[in-house]
Amino acid sequence: MTAHTYTLLNAKKASKAGFEFLLSTLKDHASEPGIKRVDEILSLLVVAEGYRREQLDYLDRTHPDRIVGGISGFLDLVRRSKESERAYHQTLELLNKKLSRYRWAAEITGDIDGFRSELHPVGSSKGEWELVEPFMVAALLRVMDKPGEISRFCRCSDCHQWFYAARGHQHFCGDVCRRRHEAQNPAFKEKRRVYMRERYRPLQRQLEERSVTIANRTNQTKGGK
Asked: Are 67 and 40 found together in one domain?
């Protein structure tokens, strides 16, 4: 699928969804231990969602009307489905192990317009980002309440930073990264070499020859006066 990369739209989408602070913190403070842990949890959540979708795909493909390859094809699908299911539960187990370090106290506030819930970290904090860390994790866990939403968090294939996908399946956080990545692609380089050899350089020679011809004509005209 062709990637749609609209950096401004991504930023607006992320801001509207409330993820602008989370993404900017992951990018600007990546070396902080607490932020590294948030990064790991986000990575595991995305991987878990990938396995979940894979399970749905295998379930659909094992339907009698969609089986390809007869019995051998069916058995191969069952084997791969079991491997995916095992990897899915292993990912969830690792996630729960990493989440076990966090403790929150819930508080409900409200007025005539409705109720609001807040989570406050429990325990002492060793630094600024260790205080922010549990709130970021809580925000990611709330994302999981919306099926498929966590899959919008992607790593850019060029700069490897997290971004919030505006639509479809995107590989790059913006046009700059996309162009830089494509410039390193062997097929792109070969296409550029062919263009330079067959189109650009011949055109440049034509322009140079034309300039020389015009200059000669001008000199001849001046000399004849």
From this structure: yes
Specify whether the CB–CB gap between 77 and 62 falls below 8 A: yes
51: number of CA atoms within 13 Å, CB side?
A: 18
pLDDT tens for each residue of the chain, 225 residues long: 333 333 444 555 555 456 888 999 999 999 999 999 999 999 999 999 999 999 888 888 766 666 666 678 778 888 888 999 999 999 999 999 999 999 888 888 888 888 887 777 786 667 777 788 988 998 898 888 888 899 999 998 888 899 998 776 788 888 888 888 777 766 655 555 665 566 656 766 676 667 666 666 666 666 655
- pTM for the structure as a whole: 0.69
In this structure, are residues 172 and 3 in contact, taking their beta carbons and an 8 Å threshold?
yes
The tally of domains found in the chain comes to 2
2 lies in some domain: no
**Considering the domain boundaries, does residue 116 fall inside one?**
yes
Compute the chain's Rg from CA coordinates: 28
50, part of any domain: yes
Residue 5: is it exposed, middle or buried by C-beta count within 10 angstroms (0-12/13-18/19+)?
A: buried
Instruction: Give the residue numbers spanning the domain of 100.
Output: 7-173
- Answer yes or no: is 203 within a domain: yes
